[in-house]
Amino acid sequence: MLSRRTLAGSLAALSAALLFPACGGSSSASSGNTLNWYIFPEPSGAFAKAAEECSKASGGEYDIQMRQLPADADGQREEMVRRLAAEDDSLDILGLDVTWTAEFAEAGWIEAWPDDLRSKVESSSLDTMIETSTWKDELFSAPFNTNTQLLWYRKDLVQEPPKTWDEMIEMAEKLADEKKPHLIEIQGAQYEGFTVWLNTMISSAGGSILNEDGTQAELGEPALKALQTMRKLADSVAADPSLPNQMENENRLAFESGTAAFQLNYPFVYPSAKDNAPDIFKNMAWAPYPSVVEGEPSHVTIGGIDLAVSSMSRKKEQAFKAIQCLREPEKQVRNAVDGGLPPVTESVYKEKDFQKSYPFWETALESLKEASVRPLTPAYQSVSLQIAYTLSPPTSIDPENDIAVLTDRIQDAIESKGLVP
Amino acid sequence: MSTQIESAPRRASKGRPTDRARAERKLGWLLCAPAAFVMLAVTAYPIGYAIYLSLQRYDLRFPAQTEFVGFTNYVTVLSSLDLWWKAFAVTLGITIVSVAIELILGMGVAMVMHRAIFGRGLVRTAVLIPYGIVTVVAAYSWQYAWTPGTGYLAKFLGPDSAPLTQTIPALAIIVLAEIWKTTPFMALLLLAGLSLVPGELLNAARVDGANAWQRFRHVMLPIMKPAILVALLFRTLDAFRIFDNIFILTQGSQDTRSVSILDYDQLFTALNLGVGSAMSVLIFLAVALIAFLFIKGFGAAAPGQELK
Prior knowledge:
Number of strands of chain A: 11
Shape of chain A: globular
Distance between the termini of chain B: 17 Å
Order of helices and strands of chain B: HEEHHHHHHHHHH
Structural class of chain B: mainly alpha
Distance between the termini of chain A: 62 Å
Order of helices and strands of chain A: HHEHEHEHHHEEEEHEHHHEHHEEHHHHHH
Oligomer: heterodimer
Strand content of chain B: under 5%
Helix content of chain B: 55-70%
Largest interface: A-B, 38 and 35 residues
Helix content of chain A: 40-55%
Radius of gyration of chain B: 24 Å
Largest sheet of chain A: 5 strands, mixed
Number of strands of chain B: 2
């Protein structure tokens, strides 16, 4: 009798183990005072230091453990979304790309900031960053670091940096005639970076992709001007032959290999050229992103990371406190100096340490103050996919026609109708 | 594979099964019941749940709008000419071209493996290497090789060429990567069939004056037919679900998306579980249809089924 019962018991245990293999592990991660911080893998270790300092300063109230997400943005979003959709309570603090706040907020995955904390966050962040953190009049995340593209060029090839896109293409074509390095490096692959390019171009032409409240696609004259300029580059000898497959890193490599004269990219290219291509670095200079309309400033798409508190977290209060600590000015300086991540608090730009390691700080700050935001809608991913799908490769852009097609597709995306490409 | 060989007599005579056979069958069912139960839990339940989800508007980004919508999602998918049907055509194209070439190459490789006198083990091992490499790793190697600047293959197509950025060359590279990767698998299945061909039969044919082609066409092929059909069935089902090679090589850009990549985009990027599940169900039906055609149409033996 006994042996049969034991057998049945162990069979049940065995089948339970087979059926629910994942149940054992998760509870330990969310015990005690541990706060799990899901964030992209920051190579310099600046985030890890901040986490350690904040944990210590809290006097045992919380202990921040970093959980590394994949290196690419899609991978990061996917991992967090998968866990949040399954209501995983082991996530406490989330490092969100600026385009995800609306989506995560609407889905009910992140917590709105209480009013008293909200005003603290707002007064210590650049306005454009706050725009990315706000959804339906509530603040859902705190800006952590920001980012913006600048124009990088070769002093040995170009005396005066170009003010407009037309001027830049002209200069590049002239260099090509002289058989000198002449390529313009920009992100033309069919991916999210393409949307960044389009958003910058449309904003700089004085328009936007969506209307004010993010419910309608609104592509008018500015979009036409933007598309015409993008097509002009694609048809010119100034365009890199692998433009349809280029992302930020390919741009950087091409610039470092010496085939390019111009590069529109994030500041990470500067220290990288210093390490990898000292000859190029000697002549590397920066300037504001060229305008689309002569005499008007460009409005570069803002990038960066916002920190949010997961709605599944059981330690929300500690998480809000920890985020405030992680984004203190001293930590922002270190993130910028060690990790090259531009701060979100304007006063930090006045710090001597920061300015020394960030020689282009003035250009960057100016650009950030004029920055534009990507479409604020929970369906941003779909909108972005539709844009890249419709317009890539840039050589196939047909300005008038594409505007009509794109308007329909973006509208479908906002309403989550149909398929995403 | 063991499908051809496994045909132990289960019935004592042509009539009713004997008591012993019945008891054995009952024991058989009992023994495989736990496995069947686990299979049901991990396959039947997800399939059922996918069908349930496919009948809803269910978008994780808009949880408030969840509702039952009947077959709307299927209509959405099936009426999408430029996405679903294009992806379907691309998938079908990749499947047909790669499986056809694999069959021919695989047959050649199988012959070599069969005939090799010296170093047979070495030959078989060498041939199997591509199949042993993780697909994602292999795909990355191909991706680097075909990207100008990081690879050596792109420049053979001329300066400034970036084949992965153009639809047709990119599809050709995807097919090439598939063929390189899975020809060994095809060859192994065919080798199993080849070893079934009795040597005496070939010798007899030779004595009768059949030349090499006639021996191949009229002696080997008919005997190998079951093995060939099983190989084709497996590879077709596999090729139709192609995902990893495309995911690494082009991420589905420039119209190189297979149905699986398109479905992944609906589910994981757009978080639209309703439409994504409808698409999964349609892919499932397409795969089932392929299997059905092979088994009923061409008379391939389903795994475990007795040969006629």
